[in-house]
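User: quick one
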Amino acid sequence: AQSVTQLGSHVSVSEGALVLLRCNYSSSVPPYLFWYVQYPNQGLQLLLKYTTGATLVKGINGFEAEFKKSETSFHLTKPSAHMSDAAEYFCAVRPSGTYKYIFGTGTRLKVLA
Amino acid sequence: GAVVSQHPSWVICKSGTSVKIECRSLDFQATTMFWYRQFPKQSLMLMATSNEGSKATYEQGVEKDKFLINHASLTLSTLTVTSAHPEDSSFYICSAAQGASIVNTEAFFGQGTRLTVV
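Assistant: Done. Structure below.
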């Protein structure tokens, strides 16, 4: 069965510091990969996605992620954290040939002033 | 991007009553809609997949008779929590997929509905 692992349920960074949120997936066939952000009591907002093509994907709000097939990873990064980045981040995969999304357990990002 | 709207955003109901949550795709036709449940501080778990005009497909462990899903049109799906109990209190999120082709189809998420059963 497909699964998504997000290392670190809580990550704290200082404002202006690098943000790195880790995501690994298990799949014999590379799936479609997504990062979503969720603010309190709100739905999910798509940050970025990888389907095919360039493995470095740029998203909104300065975030980017790199698909590494050999490592089965899709880590999310941002060079400089902003206070407004504090939120819950979910990595998700969508196996080829299905509509279903499989979500990781989420990482809560805290940005320290 | 496409917009998916859920209504209501939050609802409080008494134990034993039923609650209906609507999910609408505002600017596109959604062939397939999905319902997820999110417990506090946990991830989203897919409950069921609904296709317009046909019965929903429920994930293992989800009670079909308790969580009634109707996808009567290409822009509206409803989730009815029947005989709600406090353990049904949760955050429910829907998503809608545009197009009939799976390839490159992206699902768009609603803003969620927080259900509290007292």
